[in-house]
Specification:
The structure is a homodimer of 307-residue chains. Chain A is α/β, with parallel strands linked by helices and 307 residues long. Chain A is built from eleven helices and 13 strands. In chain A, strands 5-4-1-8-9-10-11-12-13 form a nine-stranded mixed beta sheet, sandwiched between helices. Chains A and B meet through helix 7, strand 13, helix 9 and helix 11 of A and helix 7, strand 13, helix 9 and helix 11 of B.
Chain lengths: 307, 307
C-alpha cells in the first residue's frame, strides 16, 4: 500500500556541536519520504525551484520514492538555516527563505489518488484540509502542525483536525493547542477536536500514543515507546519527520490498522528518528537496510521489555 | 531481607496548583521508607526534634518501619517550604530550616547492622561514606545526591561514589557530575567513578538504568521504564525518594540481584513514584495495598510492552 506525503522540500544549513553543513537536501516531506520508503511505496507532493537538480532528485528516486507530485517552479527552493549549538532539543532559526514554497498549492497527480494513506506534513492547515478533501478515499490520514499555525491560524487548524485520524505533535504543541499543562488532560482535549489517536513526541524521551475511547481497539489506555539513548546526536534536524515516516510507513505496510499495529508503529517511529540524528541531514536515511532497521527495533525492544 | 535508610525526616509546607498543605510529614527517608515498606522490612536512621509526636511516629510504625534509628534531639525538626505553582517538574524553595538536621550524625543501632541493603538518601557525602564504611557487610548500597553536593563538596562526593553500587540521580545531576551533555556519555563517566549501575530519573518521562560493562549480568545495554501519564499531579514532593523506595524495596525482596531484578525494580520505582504524586505529602503511600501496587505494575507493563 502507498502513502502520499505532502510537505516541504528544502535546502538546510545547519550548525551543531558536531559540525556544520550548508544547503543540504532537507524538508519535512524529504525526511518523511526517506524514512517511510523502507516500509512502503511513498509518493511526494511538494514544490522545488530551479536549483533542485537531478542529483537531489536521485536521493529520492534511489529509494523508489515517486516524485511525479514534485512541482518545479520558477525561482529558488525553500531554504532554512538553524543551529543547535546551545540546545540539541530545540533549533534556533537563523534564517527562513520561503521562496517557491510561499505560494505552494499542492497538486495531487491523478496517479496518486488511489493511495490509501496520506501524511500531511507541517504546512498551512487550509492546504492540509484541501488535500485531505481531494483525496476522499484515503483510509488513514496522519498530520503534523506547529506553534505558528496553532497560534496564528487556530480556526483553520481546528477544521483540519476534524479530517486527521492521527495527529503527531510534541509536548509543547499539545499544551498550546489544548491550553492544559497536564499531558493526559491535554491529550483528551486534542482527541475531542477530531483525531482518533494522538502521538506526542517527547524528543530524547520517546513518544506516547493516546487513543480516543474505542478507536482502533478497546479502551483508551495510552502506550509509550522510548527513544534510544544516543552517544552523539550529530544533527537533530528532521528527527520528528523521520519519526512520522517510520510510524506511517509501518502502518501502511500492514494489512490492518489496529492498536497493536499502532504500538509497533510507535517503535518504528523511534527507530527511524534514532537513525536520522546519527548523521547530518538525510545522510543516514539514504543508505539503511531493512536488516539494520529490524536489528534496531530489537534494541528498542530489549531497552523496554521485561523478560 | 531488610534495608537501612539514612536521610532526612522533615515537615514540609507545599503549594501546588491543586492546593496547599503546611507542616506535613515528609523528608527523603520518610518517603523512601513508606514506599519500600510494601516490599521489605525498612529501618530508618534519621534525626527529629521535640515537635515529632507519637502521631508522626505512627505513620511509620503502621507500615512496620523500624524507627529505633530515629534520634530525638532537642529543638525543632527540619522544615522545608516550597511551591510548584509555575512548574510541576521543579520545586521553588521558599524556606529551609535545617534545625536539628544541621548537626545530624547518623548513628546505626547495633540491631540494624545485619541488614543486607543500604540506602543513602541525599545528605552530606562524608556522612554517607561514614555510614557505608560502618555497615561493612551490606550486599548492595543505593545512593542519592544533589546539585548542592556535586558543586559544593565534589572531592568528598567522589570518595562516596566509590562505595555506592547503584546511584540514583536525575538528568541534570548526571550532566553536572559528568560535565557531559550527552546522557549515555555522561552515564559512562559516572559509572567510571564507582557505581556498577546508574539510574537516571527523567521525571514525567520515567527512568533509565545504565550498567557498567558486565555488572549484574552480561554487556552494558541500558534499560528504560516509563512514568505513568497522570491526569492530576497533586504534589510532586517526594516522587524521587518514593521511586528509590520502590526500586530498592523490590530489589531487597528478591533473593538475587541480577539484570532482570534491576529492570523490574525500575518499573516498581515508577509505580511508587506514580502513587506518591497522587496526593499531598505521604498520604497516598500510607494506605496502599500490595494488590494496588501489582495492578499498577500491570498498567506499566501494558503501557510499554508490545503484544
Amino acid at each position: 500500500m502507498s502513502i502520499v506525503a505532502v510537505g516541504s522540500v528544502a535546502f538546510d544549513s545547519i550548525a551543531t556541536p558536531s559540525g556544520r553543513v550548508n544547503d543540504v537536501l532537507g524538508g519535512a516531506a524529504t525526511y518523511f519520504a526517506l524514512a517511510a520508503s523502507y516500509f512502503t511505496q511513498v509518493r511526494v507532493v511538494a514544490v522545488v525551484g530551479d536549483d533542485f537538480t537531478a542529483e537531489h532528485e536521485a536521493v529520492l528516486t534511489k529509494r523508489k520514492v515517486d516524485i511525479r507530485g514534485i512541482e518545479h517552479a520558477k525561482g529558488k527552493t525553500f531554504r532554512w538555516g538553524g543551529q543547535y549549538l546551545d540546545n540539541l532539543n530545540e533549533a534556533k532559526t537563523e534564517f527562513t527563505e520561503l521562496n517557491v514554497f510561499e505560494k505552494f498549492q499542492p497538486q495531487i497527480p491523478q496517479e496518486f489518488m488511489d493511495s490509501e494513506f496520506l501524511f500531511l506534513a507541517n504546512i498551512h492547515p487550509t492546504l492540509q484540509a484541501a488535500v485531505r478533501l481531494e483525496m476522499k478515499d484515503v483510509r488513514l490520514t496522519g498530520g503534523d502542525t506547529m506553534n505558528f499555525w496553532i497560534s496564528g491560524t487556530r480556526p483553520e487548524l481546528l477544521e483540519t483536525l476534524k479530517l486527521v485520524n492521527v495527529l503527531l505533535i510534541n509536548d509543547n504543541e499539545v499544551r498550546m493547542l489544548s491550553g492544559e499543562k497536564s499531558l493526559p488532560r491535554g491529550a483528551r482535549k486534542v482527541l475531542a477536536m477530531g483525531p482518533q489517536a494522538l502521538v506526542v513526541k517527547h524528543g530524547e524521551y520517546g513518544a506516547t500514543i493516546f487513543f480516543r475511547e474505542g478507536a482502533f481497539g478497546v479502551g483508551s489506555h495510552p502506550f509509550r515507546a522510548p527513544a534510544l539513548p544516543i552517544e552523539e546526536v550529530k544533527d537533530p534536524t528532521g528527527a520528528g519527520d523521520s519519526f512520522a515516516g517510520g510510524f506511517m510507513g509501518y502502518i501502511a505496510s500492514q494489512g490492518e490498522v489496529n492498536r497493536e499495529v499502532l504500538k509497533r508503529a510507535l517503535f518504528y517511529g523511534g527507530v527511524m528518528g534514532s537513525f536520522a540524528v546519527e548523521q547530518f541531514g538525510t545522510e543516514r536515511l539514504q543508505s539503511l537496510t531493512r536488516e539494520e532497521i529490524e536489528a534496531r527495533f530489537q534494541v528498542f525492544r530489549e531497552l523496554t521489555h521485561l523478560g
